[in-house]
């Protein structure tokens, strides 16, 4: 099973189209993420990230709903 989570773009680090990267915030955690698949995404946008790559933009309201669901889920998922 694959897991992709939302994050907020804080900085664009490299704007070269096929090498585009940025700092993405996942709450208290910040990671450098490849943004090449979402050329329309900019600072302040929310993106869905999987394995270090932003794969699509997401509506801020939907991102907040996912953050709430993750914060409320304190159980381990079944394997």
Q: How far apart, in Å, are the first and last alpha carbons? A: 10 Å
Q: Tell me about the biggest sheet?
A: 5 strands, antiparallel
- Class by alpha and beta content: alpha+beta
Mind telling me the CATH class? Mainly Beta
Radius of gyration: 13 Å
> What is the arithmetic mean of pLDDT?
90
| SS summary, helix count | 1
Order of helices and strands: EEEEEH
**Can you tell me the overall shape?**
elongated
Instruction: Provide the low-confidence segments as ranges.
Output: none
How many distinct domains? 1
Could you characterize the architecture of this molecule?
There is one protein chain. The chain has one helix and five strands. The mean pLDDT is 90. The radius of gyration is 13 Å and the shape is elongated. The termini are close together. The chain is of the alpha+beta class and 79 residues long. 16% of the residues lie in helices and 42% in strands. The longest helix is centred in the last third of the chain and has 13 residues, at 60-72. The protein has one helix at residues 60-72, and strands at 5-14, 21-26, 29-34, 46-50, 53-58. A five-stranded antiparallel sheet has the order 3-2-1-4-5, covered by helices on one side. The chain has one domain: SH3 type barrels (Roll).
In brief:
Belongs to the HupF/HypC family. This protein is of the alpha+beta class and 79 residues long.
Characteristic key phrases:
single chain; about 80 residues; alpha+beta; SH3 type barrels; five-stranded antiparallel β-sheet; 1 helix; 5 strands; about 40% strand; elongated; Hydrogenase expression/formation protein HypC; iron ion binding; Hydrogenase_HupF/HypC
